[in-house]
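Ticket reopened. Same input as before:
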Amino acid sequence: MVPSTFVVLRSPVDLEVVIPAYNESARLPTTLQRSVEFLADQPWRTRLVVVDNGSVDETAAAARAAVRPTDIVTVAVIGCSRAGKGAAVRRGLMTSTSPFVGFFDADLATPIETLTETVAALQEGATAVIGSRHAPGASFVRSQPLGRRLGGAVFRALTRPLVTGVHDTQCGFKFFQRDAVQAAIRRCHMTGFAFDVELLAQIQHGGGRIVELPVAWTDQTGSTFHPIRDGLTSFSAILHLHWKIR
Amino acid sequence: MTPTAHGKDALPGSLLEQLSDARILVLNWRDVRHPQAGGAEQYMHQIACRWAAAGAQVTWLTARHPGQPKQETVDGIEIRRAGGPLTLYPRVALRLMRSIGRIDYIVDCQNGIPFFSPLFVAPAVPVVQLVHHVHQDQFATRFGPMLAAVGRFLEGRVARRVYRGRPIAAVSPSTRHELRRRLRFRGPIHVVPNGTGPVPALRALRDPNPAITVVSRLVPHKRINLLLAQLVATAAAVPGLRVDIVGDGPELPRLRQLADDLALGSVVTFHGYRSDTDRDELLGRAWLTTVTSAAEGWGCSIIEAAAHGVPTLAMRVPGIRDSVVPERTGWLVDDEATFGAAMVTALRDLADATRAREITDACHAWARCFDWDRSAELLAGVLLDAAARATGHRRDRSTRSDIAAVARFARPEGWSETAGELRPIDQVVVEKGRVSLLLPGCDEVDAAVALSRLGVTPAEIRLAEQYELLTGPAGMPAVLGYGYATTQDGSIAS
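Engineering reply: fixed in the latest deploy. New output:
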């Protein structure tokens, strides 16, 4: 008998973009529209995969209504009952069968045009291509508040030994060779804010090569990141990773 | 497991049977015989009398309006009245403390302020809080600033503490959304929609001229004044328009005056309170009904109009937006300043006989989705689930319970045995050998895992759509032409 979970896999396209969404009915439609506009002109077939993380604000319906699918770009809406962006991203990546797969945030803080360079790098054999707000050449379109910048600097100092040669593990823009990322995810345990760090560490652990692309980042309002509560959680998760990986 | 009714293949083991002999306490500030009883009392009464008919022993504790007997049995429900609108609450609390060991289930109906029953009974007694809508904004319209603040505090922060983890039944997805957003409730919230009366097979003869009938209590939050103001332009654009307003209330004199001031005397007729037959006749001949409320829990009058084949034009506001299928059973307006223009467009659309017939068919089909037998089953499922939850015999499939998955597959041999594996809140419809399941709290993968445990290979698993939370796993009737976008994502077919 075919395992039941088989029915939740999506048919392959060239590239799948996972967008984790929790109560994003306000911002998501614009993000989808802008993405479709850009992707329609690209030579690859893309599917935008919205992962509804148990929203109550009709995020799924808003996503379905936002765009008209074409031969080149389609939209899928799937669910993830486990709370947390990491869990939602994980679900989207693990149910893909497309050669290239990755995720970006529902607020589209990284310009969608970055995908051109991303796909080129993946085609040239990079295992992971990630946006970076701190690699040489990156910029902040609107600068972050001081507290956030300080916290970020400490966080980066702590993660540096875990992920070699990567300036910014936290940018919400990451794309992968599917086989490699699925193998890495199977070894990952975290679903919170440290999810990205663990994922990248596991990619390198599996012999993967990570390419950082400097991006022009726009800090969006409406972030769900709470500096104290989530900051502390992230730090303790990173310390835990140090203990586990080293 | 909730088998969903009408004309579908019979399924064994109705949830109501599991409630037979159960002692169920309903706490509600009013009962169906109270002079001001409204939709909320009707809802609980319709459900409770079905439980009683199935053998449950239902006791309804409520306030005593002057002239009402202390105790009477209505439709199998034992109603016990004591206290006024405020003293009722401490009296119920005392009563609960005295009835230790004699209650199997409690339905705590929240009409702004709940009864806080979890404080007065043992933790093992399953309590379900029933919420029609969130009152945070309404306290200020009814009370002074101090009392309103107390109301908001009790409905929000205090209730959140007291009912923590206890399941809630909400009458619509909108109400669930408000409970999460406004009151920040984190426990499980189940959607248990209203039913409606019988749906006539044929539509009554429509008025040859454009006609709008509004059936409503005339109270401020229904905002009939907004309708009147918008009617001025509509009446000018639609010659021969007549508007019948059926219903009574404290606003009637003011609304009459307003209609006169706006020179709508020849267009608008206030009928006041009318018998059901008269009301149905006025409604039946209408082309359209309107709802101008700023928010509701659910649009009972919308579904009643739909049962008569009459579509609705309404504001896109919580509760109401769930009760209308846009472009099929009515229209939703975002900006109240354009309500009048929208009435003109709707009436012109309805002037076309073919289009009007299509809309009538859609309205009938929509109204048939709401049936009290199903509501009674769904709320019974929530009670049984609450019991499993209270005693800890429950496998929690999720952390975010607002998600739901729909699965469809061919009915396997011996399905009736496996059906016992489902949770009481899971909904199932079997039609022509095809099983449709709605699994609350499950995403697609959770659903696939649950089904593989049942030995079922599903043909299709996907996220439930908003409307399916109301209509159940069978989905929207085909005549509503509401296409599910399941093929474009490529995710779902096996």
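The first helix of chain B runs from residue 15 to 18. The domain at 2-191 of chain B is CATH 3.40.50.2000 (Rossmann fold). Please confirm and we'll close it.
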